[in-house]
Amino acid sequence: xxxxxxxxxxxxxxxxxxxxxxxxxxxxxxxxxxxxxxxxxxxxxxxxxxxxxxxxxxxxxxxxxxxxxxxxxxxxxxxxxxxxxxxxxxxxxxxxxxxxxxxxxxxxxxxxxxxxxxxxxxxxxxxxxxxxxxxxxxxxxxxxxxxxxxxxxxxxxxxxxxxxxxxxxxxxxxxxxxxxxxxxxxxxxxxxxxxxxxxxxxxxxxxxxxxxxxxxxxxxxxxxxxxxxxxxxxxxxxxxxxxxxxxxxxxxxxxxxxxxxxxxxxxxxxxxxxxxxxxxxxxxxxxxxxxxxxxxxxxxxxxxxxxxxxxxxxxxxxxxxxxxxxxxxxxxxxxxxxxxxxxxxxxxxxxxxxxxxxxxxxxxxxxxxxxxxxx
Length: 375
Fold this sequence. Notes:
alpha/beta; Rossmann fold; 42% helix; globular
């Protein structure tokens, strides 16, 4: 059986979707499928091979199609639409007569064109489409929709899509990546992190809805023996974030780090923070953060915003859930975790037990079983 995965993405990319796409292709290949990942040719500062960059087995093929990449010319919005349309049209002509049992994508436009001629299409939704009415026919024509949260399924169903056509499959993690033998002390020594401080760690992008600024603001309540560490972000966002928080003495902003060393940073930490904001739907209802599953796999205590999207995975037994967008509550929760090592160890152990259900391989098997059931 052949699966073609379409992604209008710059690969490699520092964004989390790159990890998800590559890991899913690897998992589909491990399930016995012949996998071809089709992406556009785009300008990319990252020159490393995608397989090496993400630590993924070369068990599938990556094919690059030409596209009009104008986003680096100072035309981000118009450039994106031109590039998006050019990629979608090339995909259409390339795949119109291609033979594959499954065509899978997180991008609507390529599927929209193909849906008039092919019925073996699977759409994976990570947000609710802004122009849903324009694509309602597409969603009715394709074989299945995979969503990452229950709320996303509810929204599709409320807008006329048959619930039986929609599968909820949260994101996942590669457990082997986080099964490292080094101790916390050894990880800190390797990463040049202080041994004499409690480390509060956040990984990921610095967008407003991610809540990173809430954690930075919470740092004002901590004593000098607590250091808040941020890893991730684009060059532009890191520069802005450093300027905004330059007055905090106990904040360390390290910027982007290769995904391969993230497990060592997580193990070096005392507390891992998921401070998502409640002010935007994508955070409140749609997100299934990859870092949440990585935190769980790292076997370190987690403190997270109490949001519907987060509660689909985390609860009072495997994390500490606090009021979102509140630096005060976040600071108090972190301090309580540091004061209660036995409780922290207990919830970290439970989170690790719970995350066993959320591997990329199990996610893939769930999706393939659902597709077979839909036939």
